[in-house]
Structure formats: C-alpha cells, structure tokens
Design a protein that fits this description.
By secondary structure, this protein is an alpha/beta fold. It has 25 helices and 18 strands. The protein has 4 domains: 177 residues, 3-Layer(aba) Sandwich (Rossmann fold); 39 residues, no CATH class; 154 residues, Rossmann fold, CATH 3.40.50; 140 residues, Rossmann fold. The strands form 3 sheets. It has a 7-stranded mixed β-sheet, sandwiched between helices. Strands 12-14-13-16-17-18 form a 6-stranded mixed β-sheet, sandwiched between helices.
Length: 640
C-alpha cells in the first residue's frame, strides 16, 4: 500500500512546504496507515484517529523539538511519532525493544516529557516555560495538549490556576472529544458541551464589531469599550468562560478536523503574550465507522479485523467481567452496596452494575483521589462502597487511602484491577507497586485470588468485612491446570492459606497470577527430582502465621514468588516474620526487580526477568543446590 505524502515526511520540517490540500490528503493517508498498522499490532486507536489534523497543524506551525510539545496521557501520540521520523518502526509498536505506545525521551528528541497518566501535561509545561524564562531563553514556545477527560483530574486545575496567575507565555490546547476512555461526566463536561455548541456568542461578537466599524470616529472607541465588556457578554451568553476567568486568553471552540482553521488559530496564539487556551473540538475515532460508533471499545484494542472491527480474541471470562458480575449479585443481596469508578466503567466490568443499579453507581471521571474520599464518606454513612480502579491509577490516591480511609478504619473495598504486569502499555501502567504501597498501612487487609472462583468467594467475605480491604487481580483470566480436585467439604476462609501441591524439599509461597507459574515450576522441579510444595497465600496481609509456623517445622527452604516489586512486597513481609520469630529457614524472594518494566507481552516480560515457570524452576534449583544469592534473588538464613 502506497503512502506517497506520508513516506515523504522524515521530520516535522517536511510539512512546511505542504499546502492545505496536501495536508488534507496526508490526513487521509495517516488514518489509513494507523488503521492498517493497529489492526495487526493492537494499540490505542480511537484517540489517535481523532487528533490527526490537530497533530499535523501543531507540527506545521511550531518547530519541534525547539518548541516543546507535552502530550497529556500520551496514548494519542502515534501521529506525532509518524511525523517525527518513526514510521518505519511502527511494526514494533508496544513490543519488547520497540516503539513505546507513549512519549519516551530516550526514543526521540521530539518526546520532551514522558506521560502515561492523565492531568500532568499543564504542570510539566508550566515548569518548562518557567525554566525558559529563568534562563532568558524566550525564543521557543511551550505547548500542552490536554484532553477534556484529563481536565476532570484536579492536578490539571491546580496547574491552570497557577499558570493563569503567572502570566507566563504558555499555550494550552484542549482536545475536546467529549471522551476520556468512557464518556465524560460531571459539571465541566457539561460546560464544555455548552461552549462547543454555543453560536450566540460568536454571532454577537462578530455582528457587533462589524456594525461599529461602520460608524465614523465613534466606532473604534466604542469597540474598545466593548472589548472591556467582553467577559460580561461571554458570561451571559456562553455560561461563563471559566478559562478566561482563570487568566487565559481563550480561543475557540475550533473545528479540530479543519486544518486551515487550526493553523490560523495556532499562528494567532503563537504571537500572543501570556497564557493562551485553545479549545479544539474533535471526534474520537474519526474516519473509521466502527470507532466513531463505539469509541470506548476502540480506545485500546488488540489486533482486529479491519473490515469488520471484530477482534480475534476468544472471549474468555476475565477477572474484570467476573468482578462486575459478582458485584451485581452482591448488589441484589444488599441494597447498601455501591460501585465507584474513575472514568472506566466498561474496563473495570461495572457496566452491568450501572445498568442494574443506576442510583448506586458513580463514575467520578479521572479523579481517583476524589473517588477514594467519596467512598470513605459513603462508608462512614453506612453504605458498602466498592472502588474499582487499576493498580497503576490507584497509586494516585495514596494519601486519601491513608488519611481518609485507613486512619478511620472505614470499610471501603478496593477492587484493584490490572495488578501485576499488564504488558504492552509499559512502565507507566505496570501494576507492580500496590502491595508495597498498601501493605504497610495499618488496618488494611489485602487479598489476591488465584482464580475467578476464589475472587467470588473473597468478595462474599468482603461484603461484611469491617475495615479497609483490597482485592488485587490481574488483567485477563487465569486457567489453572495440574491442580488436585478441591476439597468441597472444607469451608472457605480467605484469611487461611491453602496447600495446592504437596512436597517436602521446599515451599513455594505465591498468590494470584503467579500461582500458575509456581505450579508449573513445581512440575519442572519434580522432573529434576525435587518435590516442591506450593502454597496459595491468597491473604497477603495479614499473613497466615499459623501456616508459616506449621511449614517451618518440616520445610527449611522457602521461596516467595510475587508479581510485585521485591522492595516492600510480600516477600519482605515473610522475611520480617521469619526474622522476628527466629525461624531456622533459608528464604529466597522472587519478584519484580528494582527497575521499571518496559512494554511487551506479559509472557515475554516474565521470561525476560526470569519469572516464568522455567526461569523460576531454574532459580529454585540453584538455590537449593548452592544456597546462596543468585541474580535477582535475595537469600538469607535466619538464626534460631
């Protein structure tokens, strides 16, 4: 397939010689390329289709990397990557060693700041603008590109408030597509919708200036007076221009798919002094019928069939789906159950609950801090909130978990989705810190189910749990094989660990997704003549101390295996217990090393850091044979 204009772009400067008509054709080629490429690799589709013309206009008007462009969230930078010389690498997108799905400073000089979570770009841009001013370098622009969904995050408003007050030269471009991942909610979304559709203000402004220009002598003075009254007109006709009230010069709303209009307003903004706010209206999924109709589904997709929009997935029941189904069951059982999400009702499995109990469902937008403290308020009033947030996003609400939930010992239930390695989204999205940042907080209980059945059983328990509780579970599903049949007569207690595989030479203590690895590693060790015991440590906090005391009597070699960082993780808690009790055991901790894990398929990443079954078995074998530190292993012997 030929991309005549796109293939001619090796750097942003190549755009400068193009006409508007050329850039319209380039937009068509880019959409065709993105659709063809992502149908094979997967990735963030709808958001990138929506910013094609916006990105072209940015690189036409401004001079990257001299002019600094900071993209909020960053998943919409595929077109930016294409225009900055990375087209030939697109088949490696989100793969190990390939192009990141987000801005990466080590990848290109045009990626001036790394993003992955929302609402950060304006703060970073203001910092760069102030650094420019301090150093007396007034010859470049700083531009933050932020979505309307990201504006629901409080940090964005903190930055807008500071930037408007500062009078620093800064351009903020609002990409308003009425979406984050799901449809935006809240008062700001409503305000932006009114601004997008309000023609009254433009009509009055243009008509009044046209009339005054025709009045000799008096026309211009009156026009200047009218300019002073401009805010009053805006407030009256467009329901209050919040951005001008914060100190920005407001331009818009502009059609985000009209390259000529975009170029004109950006050139205007580049000549203005002080902070400027450009409001651009775009359509998420633009140019692909299936993405336009269902932008939420096409936000981030696996490889798909271009002609039909269908994915190749087999449709297995995921933890997210199972969590949502179970929560509906709990909601039917107890009318005090409420569900909270931060702009991700579909991804966290809550759509069924939303449909069944609309008055007990709350989507707060991209506002994790607010979600947690609101849940604390609900819990303090006798309700039973379940807060479903990805592991990587929940860390944004750490202070609220400590201060508003745990200090008061309120029964807020955290459903921590995408715990552990998530794969292709890379460093900013790997959920490998939650055990470390939750386990040291007093009053917190943490569970990690080994499969979907156990998730449901733990949720039953949490319904009446008196205190903060977190249930962490991975992306996708887990299919456990090679396990003995369950003892149906034994009652379920999530605070008690269970022996899944019996053995006498060592004990592997693991939970959640890593149970798969532990069981398979035990099978490999068995072929090497080593009988490894596998214990499902589903209660990460508190530890099952009775089980630890019991196994210490006949097992002197323990291996902790987790998909959390080693520092402050489950293994650290086991080490501390063994030391405090003076147990005569050798312990090896296996987990995520002290580094950020880049993108790639989860299976590839586990193999890369030797946390796949083969790697774990090899490391355990060496540990038992050599009894000393090996690679990422932390081994020590406690003294009785």
């Amino acid at each position: 397939m030929e991309y005549i204009l796109l293939d001619s772009i090796h750097a942003p400067q190549d755009l400068k010689a193009m006409t508007i008509e050329d850039m319209k054709e380039l937009s068509r080629e880019i959409r065709e390329f993105i659709l063809t490429s992502l149908s094979q690799t997967g990735g963030h589709l709808a958001s990138n289709l929506g910013v094609v013309e916006l990105t072209i206009a940015l690189h036409y008007v401004f001079d990257s990397p001299k002019d600094k462009m900071i993209w909020d969230v960053g998943h919409q930078t595929y077109i930016h990557k294409l225009l900055t010389g990375r087209k030939d690498k697109f088949d490696s997108l989100r793969k190990i060693g390939g192009l990141s799905g987000f801005p990466k400073r080590k990848e290109s000089s045009h990626d001036v700041f790394e993003t992955g979570h929302s609402s950060t770009s304006i703060s970073a841009a203001l910092g760069m603008a102030r650094a420019r001013d301090i150093k007396g370098q007034d010859d470049y622009h700083v531009i933050a590109i932020v979505g309307d969904g990201a504006l629901t995050g409080g940090m964005a408003f903190e930055a807008l408030n500071d930037a408007g007050h500062s009078k620093t030269n800064l351009i903020v471009i609002l990409n308003d597509n009425e979406m984050s991942i799901s449809h935006n909610v809240g008062a700001l979304a409503g305000h932006l919708s009114k601004v997008r559709t309000s023609s009254e203000y433009d009509w009055v402004k243009k008509g009044m200036h046209s009339l005054l220009d025709k009045i000799p002598k008096l026309g211009k003075p009156i026009a200047r007076g009218m300019e002073l009254a401009k805010r009053s007109f805006k407030s009256l006709l467009v329901h209050g221009m919040i951005f001008e009230e914060m100190g920005f010069k407001y331009l818009g709303p502009i059609d985000g798919h009209n390259i000529g209009s975009l170029i004109k307003v950006m050139e205007q903004a580049s000549k203005m002094e002080g902070p400027v706010f450009i409001h651009v209206a775009t359509q998420k999924g633009k140019g692909y019928e299936f993405a336009e109709e269902n932008p939420e589904f096409f936000h981030g997709v696996p490889p798909f069939i271009l002609e039909t929009g269908k994915t190749h997935s087999k449709g297995k029941v995921t933890f997210s789906t199972a969590f949502g189904d179970k929560l509906v069951e709990l909601g039917q059982r107890d009318n005090r159950v409420v569900a909270i999400t931060a702009a991700m009702p579909d991804s966290t499995g809550l759509l069924k609950f939303k449909d069944r109990f609309p008055n007990r469902f709350f989507d707060v937008g991209i506002a994790e801090q607010h979600a947690v403290t609101m849940a604390a308020g609900l819990a303090s009033s006798g309700l039973k909130p379940y807060v479903a947030i990805y592991s990587t996003f929940l860390q944004r609400a750490y202070d609220q978990i400590v201060h508003d939930v745990c200090i008061q010992n309120l029964p807020v239930r955290f459903a921590i989705d995408r715990a552990g390695l998530v794969g292709e989204d890379g460093e900013t999205h790997q959920g490998v810190f939650d055990i470390s940042y939750l386990s040291h907080i007093p009053n917190m209980t943490i569970f990690s189910p080994k499969d979907i059945d156990e998730l449901g059983q733990i949720m039953d328990y949490t319904l009446n749990h008196d205190g903060p509780v977190a249930i962490r579970y991975p992306k996708g599903s887990i299919e456990l094989s090679n396990l003995p049949a369950k003892d149906s007569d034994k009652s379920f207690n999530p605070l008690e660990w269970e022996i899944l595989v019996k053995g006498t030479d060592c004990s592997i203590l693991s939970f959640g997704k890593m149970i798969e690895v532990a069981v398979d590693a035990a099978g490999i060790l068995s072929e090497l003549g080593i009988n490894a015991q596998v214990i499902n440590t589903r209660s990460i906090k508190p530890l099952d101390k009775l089980m630890l005391e019991s196994i210490s009597k006949n097992s002197t070699h323990w291996i902790t295996l987790e998909d959390n960082v080693l520092t402050g993780g489950f293994g650290s808690a086991v080490n501390e217990y063994a030391l405090c009790q003076g147990l005569d055991v050798d312990i090896m901790n296996l987990g995520i090393p002290d580094d950020f894990v880049a993108q790639g398929r989860v299976e590839e990443l586990l193999e890369l850091i030797s946390l796949d079954a083969k790697g774990v078995a090899h490391r355990i074998y060496n540990f038992l044979k050599t009894d000393k530190e090996n690679g990422y292993v932390h081994s020590f012997k406690t003294q009785a």
